[in-house]
């Protein structure tokens, strides 16, 4: 979806979002409440420039607008794979961005992620997966690693991974599978403004993704392992 059409649907009360070199930044109003909007468009890869721009926008919000909600609009093909970015330490820029998101949360800023087009790899990890809650549109494309790349890394034949993906959401892309795993809190269809209002009103109780994954049957061991480590309980495989 075009980000301008998306913004019109999300913010019927108006917005002041601007695009510069596929980086989105600005503000909007929801039920009279102002919120910061930070994101990307055009399937842009996250290189050092955009990672730093997002981090700066988050820090500026923390400094100038204490407690203001932050909406992260996500459309990226992932971390930029260039020798230049690697030599300049793209991993440190991405880590810095993640730390800034975490700082904002610790300072009382509700943070919502919305995958409105494409979310791949490290560009998703340091945005939507760092938010208090991440949501997606039904036609969004989401994956951390494609099956061909996964096959090369794990040395497991792609045909085997393709077969596993039919029944195991860990191996399969798409918003429905990330919903089952708890990576997404919900899929927004229909009235997007109403979904956003509901997300902003939702009280947060820490990271609930593992619990959601267990509840939805997409990640059956993550929460039991957490419980066993935190409480010294029995082996979750027993």
UniProtKB/TrEMBL annotation:
Coiled coil: none annotated. It comes from the Bacteria. Its EC number is 4.1.1.88. Keywords: Lyase. GO terms for molecular function: lyase activity. One of its GO terms (biological process) is carbohydrate metabolic process. Signal peptide: none annotated. Pfam families: MdcE (PF06833). The keyword Lyase applies. NCBIfam families: malonate_gamma. This is Biotin-independent malonate decarboxylase subunit gamma. It comes from Duganella callida. The gene is mdcE.
